[in-house]
Specification:
The complex is a heterodimer. Chain A is mainly α. Chain A has helices at residues 2-40, 46-50, 63-94, 99-112, 116-128, 136-161, 164-172, 177-188, 190-204, 232-240, 245-277. Chain B is an all-alpha fold. Chain B has helices spanning 2-10, 22-61, 64-67, 81-112, 115-130, 133-158, 164-169, 179-203, 207-215, 220-231, 233-249, 252-257, 275-282, 289-319; strands at 71-72, 77-78. Classes of the chains: A mainly alpha, B mainly alpha.
Chain lengths: 279, 322
């Protein structure tokens, strides 16, 4: 009897601890979101989207960072989608089962969680140092390299989910393998591929470390990708660590904007994925 | 014969179905193969460029690079021991904090929580993983650090009844920017990631296995600790390594809150630096070629550390797929 009681008590404690752990995790999410809204929401006004970053003490916005981020993310996503979908297709449809395919998949998984700052160093070595200058191109390539593994992984997963009967039906009509993949399998997995792109975008839109020494930052609006380019995350980094109250307020606004973008993209991605998984 | 001539008037004669041209097949296949190879080349490129860039520093300082904690851009004397120790200590500490929480969260979601609530909670926890690192950094700098300094560091420092070894462990400037708060932020960052992967692992356990254990009269605790976790033990180690890999390479959040001082950290509440935070802080403003090279050499050390940890993680997780 004593032993049963002890087991019951141990069990209750365990259940309570597990529930408490979940509460702690959720509490952090709430606290972080709360700080973002409390400190950032009040600072959102038209200036944020129409003016460039100010000198301390004068009014200003984040326009240079927002435009730079959009341009570099666009370049990054373009690279990531082209390379990622093709590589994912190769893994799912052609060589995924070969030894080479397994090595590629393994390295892709490693690249998926490789430190982003090292990708920044790599791009610095191949695109900044040889051309003697920081540039928006370098920033975009660094972001692209970070998104590629996510797009590749999602593409492979989504294509593998498509039933083989679909491929057989296409081939039975006399179409070649590549034609079947492009016009049947890609279409059937369209929403899934879209999700992969969204997840990749969510990953890179807040990335700071790889931009610090590829695009460097620029306090003026610059639409030339060959020049150093501002970005929202690097502006936040600079402003948050400054000693000026108004710069710190702008940093919070920037952080809120990025968080909203990332969370929205994540949620849309999830909704799309759920729609497609429905039979 | 008649039919073919009629066809050729309206449309060009076709001998094959659409998309069956040998050439386009080969090109498409080649493109896909090229993209996959490009991925491998990217990873190889990272290693090679880091090795080349860091070579001057390795040549100059030799093995002393790993044991010296000097970091002096003026005298051009660089040693990696401080950042390496900082990286390992913060990551391991973060893991120690996050692991029990991650196990708790995933077990709760899989075993105890009603299905209709479990799904939204799981999504919320995964959203925590999606928040960019710089946001964690700002939260750490402006919210966690001041709170920690006021409510943890100061009371501990002013209390006189603590044993000497404990006082030595918590010595430091009470500003909240130190090794311990950096680990805390890292723990918050890797927690959702680890619990998401661990939850997926637990969901792969066949329900017969759990039900058999319950049928023998086991309590929840016994089912989880004696049946479920042992069932996925290799994958569980993989999850731990995955979390460690994330923590080792995390940059921005740590840069905000670790205090950024070179050399060995002397206590838990002392400021320090990690490899990633040192690179983030100094690379764009490196004063000389040797400074740059030393930072890239640090990057190579970080790459080797994370690659080893992540490779083990992936191999363990892959071997778990029954």
């Amino acid at each position: 009897m004593d032993r049963t009681l002890r087991r019951k008590i141990t069990n209750s404690i365990f259940v309570v601890l597990c529930a408490a752990a979940t509460l702690v995790a959720l509490a952090f999410l709430v606290m972080i979101l709360w700080s973002l809204v409390a400190k950032g929401f009040g600072g959102i006004d038209a200036n944020i989207f129409t003016m460039t970053q100010p000198a301390p003490g004068s009014p200003g916005g984040l326009l240079n960072g927002i435009l730079g981020s959009i341009l570099m993310c666009a370049l990054g996503m373009l690279l990531a989608i082209v390379v990622g979908i093709l590589a994912g297709t190769w893994l799912a449809e052609y060589g995924g089962k070969t030894a080479y395919g397994q090595v590629v998949r393994f390295l892709n998984d490693v690249l998926l969680s490789a430190p982003s700052i090292l990708v920044g160093l790599f791009v610095y070595e191949i695109l900044v140092k040889p051309f003697h200058g920081f540039s928006g191109y370098a920033g975009g390539v660094a972001l692209g390299l970070l998104a590629v593994p996510i797009v590749t992984r999602t593409t492979e997963d989504m294509l593998t989910l498509q039933p083989n009967t679909l491929r057989e039906a296409g081939m039975a009509l006399g179409a070649g393998r590549g034609f079947v993949i492009r016009s049947i399998i890609w279409k059937a997995a369209g929403a899934g591929l879209f999700t992969g792109g969204l997840l990749g975008f969510a990953r890179i839109s807040g990335e700071t470390a790889p931009l610090l020494f590829t695009s460097l930052g620029n306090q003026f609006v610059n639409l030339k990708m060959s020049q150093p380019m501002g970005s929202l995350p690097t502006t936040i980094f600079q402003f948050a660590l400054s000693a000026y109250d108004d710069w710190q307020r702008l940093a919070w606004v920037g952080a809120l904007l990025i968080a909203i973008a990332v969370l929205a993209v994540n949620i849309v991605g999830r909704l799309v994925a759920r729609e497609t998984h429905r039979p | 014969m008649n039919a073919t001539t009629m066809d050729s008037e309206t449309a060009p004669p076709r001998e094959t179905a659409p998309g069956q041209s040998e050439l386009s097949e080969t090109i498409f296949r080649g493109l896909c193969f090229g993209a996959a190879t490009l991925l491998m080349a990217a990873l190889a490129g990272v290693v090679i460029s880091l090795a080349i860039g860091g070579w001057p520093a390795f040549k100059q300082f030799g093995f002393g690079f790993f044991t010296s904690s000097a970091w002096n851009p003026v005298t051009e004397d660089y040693g990696a021991a401080g950042p390496i120790v900082g990286t390992v200590v913060t990551s391991v500490l973060a893991l120690v904090i996050a692991l029990p929480l991650a196990v708790g969260v995933s077990v709760f979601l899989v075993e105890f929580c009603p299905r209709n609530i479990a799904k939204p909670i799981a999504v919320a926890v995964e959203l925590l993983a999606g928040i960019p690192s710089i946001v964690y950094g700002m939260w750490g700098l402006f919210v966690l650090a001041p709170w920690f300094a006021l409510h943890v560091q100061l009371p501990l420092m002013t209390s006189t009844s603590l044993p000497g070894w404990f006082q030595a462990m918590i010595a430091g400037i009470p500003n909240g920017a130190n090794i311990f708060t950096a680990s805390l932020i890292l723990a918050i960052m890797i927690l959702p990631y680890m619990s998401a992967v661990f939850r997926e692992l637990l969901l792969t356990i066949p329900s017969q296995v759990r039900e058999a254990a319950y049928g023998l009269g086991s309590t929840n605790f016994e089912v989880v600790s004696k049946v479920m976790i042992p069932y996925v033990r290799r994958g569980a180690v993989g999850v731990v390594m995955l979390g460690l890999g994330r923590a080792l390479g995390e940059t921005m959040a740590v840069t905000f809150i670790i205090g950024n001082s070179h050399g060995f950290p002397h206590s838990l509440f002392d400021s320090g630096s990690t490899i990633a935070s040192t690179i983030a802080n100094e690379f764009a403003e490196a004063t000389s070629d040797m400074h740059t090279s030393a930072l890239i050499a640090l990057g190579l050390v970080l790459f080797i550390l994370t690659f080893a940890v992540l490779a083990i993680a992936r191999l363990l997780l892959a071997s778990e797929k029954h």
